Amino acid sequence: MKTRNKMIPRIVKLVFVMFAVIIGTGFKSIHTEKCLPVKSPAKDQRIMLALLLDTSNSMDGLIDQAKSQLWKIVNELAAAKCGDGSRPSIKIALYEYGNDGLPSSEGYIRQVSGLTDDLDLISEKLFALSTNGGNEFCGQVIKTSLNQLSWSTSPADLKMIFIAGNEPFTQGSVSYRLACGVAKEKGVVVNTIFCGNFDEGMRTSWKDGADIAGGSYMSIEQNRKTVYIATPYDDQIASCNERLNKTYLYYGASGEQKKAAQATQDRNAESYGQANKVERAVSKSSHAYKNSSWDLVDAAKEDEEIIASAPAQELPPEMQGMSTEQRTKYVAQKAEERKKIQNEIQALNKKRQEYIASHSTNENDDSMLDAAMIKAIREKARALNFDWK
Predict the structure, then answer these.
(1) Domain 46-224+364-382 sits in which CATH superfamily?
(2) How far is 277 from 188, CA to CA, in rounded Å?
(3) Among residues 106, 109, 361, 385, which one has the fewest Cβ atoms lying within 10 Å of its Cβ?
(4) pLDDT in tens, 111-125
């Protein structure tokens, strides 16, 4: 009995020591485990898109879809949010290829516009395109766009090429494999859009090009007409657009001409129907639509000095006799008006989108240019922490 009583304290002591060792080991594991740094969301992210369109004879339908769907695609880009909750800057470039009217020495390729945030310019250039039979050199136009455009070097930015056409991807002296490989090295995703049968596009290497550059392969029916769903809000948004235009105050040598071009692109959009004009109006109410190169309201956000320094003879008639103080007050007034109208358009568009969603059949949507592009953009953008919530 005595021996047993002596053993109890020893057992208790042993248990205590073992418990302390276990606890100590656990704490050691917790404290010595390497802590990985938390990756903060990227700031000032950018979206850069280059659209390479085949303008040979058979591509009238493709160009028609691009003209009628530009503003819908812009609105999709404008709705994106960066990882830190801010809005990305958006730039678009445009190339045409495969047109006999283009220099053969350049591979029947033309840069229509470099990367720009001047969306009216993109619209203007797009509406000026015409088709003509030719040779379609996909590898060469991809290589040309990679070399000529000022692509971002940041891995946080979304950089994409969309190339659309209907001839074999293998044509020309520049290997599409080499061009797509270079794109991948630069972090530029190449998405291929074959205008025709899906399997034919695969057989003619359109899918292989996309696979090499980490992009998506899609096929569309280029001769399908864009179908719009009219809504009860279209007329109200169109009316807001007329008021919005009156808030633009041109300046500079080409300011008046750019203001006129704005109205021209309104009419170009309307040529595809009221609903398309509304899509453009929605774009004009977003952060993506910037005209600081010719509009005082946008320019003053970047540099208020422009209000005082702009030559009087290059201003609208009502501003030419104003003092600097009067100019400043007038620009501020127009800025406030614009913001209110833009908010009104955004609110109406929310109701419009709800109406469209409830009346849309979504039948064969994927066979259109805009749907193909939007799907590819969203897939790649989410990997870079862009969001559409």
Answers:
(1) von Willebrand factor, type A domain (3.40.50.410)
(2) 32
(3) 361
(4) 999 999 999 999 999
